[in-house]
Predict the 3D structure of the following.
Amino acid sequence: MGGSGGGYFRSERPENVRDALRQEEKATEDQIFETQVANDIGDLLAEYNNRDTEAVKQVLELLKKALENEVEDGTIVTTFGGSVRKHTYVDGISDVDCLFVLKGDEFANLGPADALNLLESKIRNVFPNAAPERDKMSLRIGVQGVVLEILPALRREGQLCIPSESGKSWSKINPQKFIAKLTEVNDRCGTKVVPTIKIAKGINDTFAESQRLSGYHLESLAIEAFKEYVGPKNTKAMVEHLIGFASERVLSPVRDRTGQSLHVDEYAGGKGSELRKVVAQNLDRVWRRMKNANANHSREMWTELLTK
């Protein structure tokens, strides 16, 4: 009976012990790498989301007060907010802080540029030193330590409209319905979908401007990608999933079920258009680089994907 302890190790073949040790070492290396990249993504998200929510609320209240004669009482405030990086254009519903809906017949025939002029004028009255930045669709204002992305809107024949991407006309939209869809998927995935979208938008921004997905398109792809998602609920894994999913799904139009238009991606042309093929290639290239970075445990490669 003596000496029976440790018999397991004596009976193991040396090569099996070495294999087990290598597997254990690899698992440890994998965990360290995953943790490092997760921390890097977390730091980037902290940069994106570095906002004082109470200050945002106070600034919005001041703006609503200044515009009380021009906009509806029920200003639409999104639940996500916060522009990605330092964009001066709207990246999608998840990046808009609020929609100021103009009221009254006197504004019914305003064009998007006129609506933006009106909002800008009122904002300058309240915050004379704010120097709002604007593009064809929105105003971006930095005051009291916060930055807000503001979108004008009109109601026409009972339908809410926002500026089109060209800024020359109005596009129908149902923001409440879209926000509800995005919120539902986000909640089901442990509130990780919106952070995933923000990282994906940062990656999208590294492409040539003519080859980028619109923010609304990317958000719609994310809703599809995660509506039945069963993978790990962490941002790194979900970014990989979204980019891989989008690289294939982008080749076909995404139907818009919120009432804005027939498809959310009309700008990309029909199924298999040249633009869709180029965007698909860009996304597939990024997805393959992600897999390569994982295989090589290269934190540097992941950093390049996220920031360059």
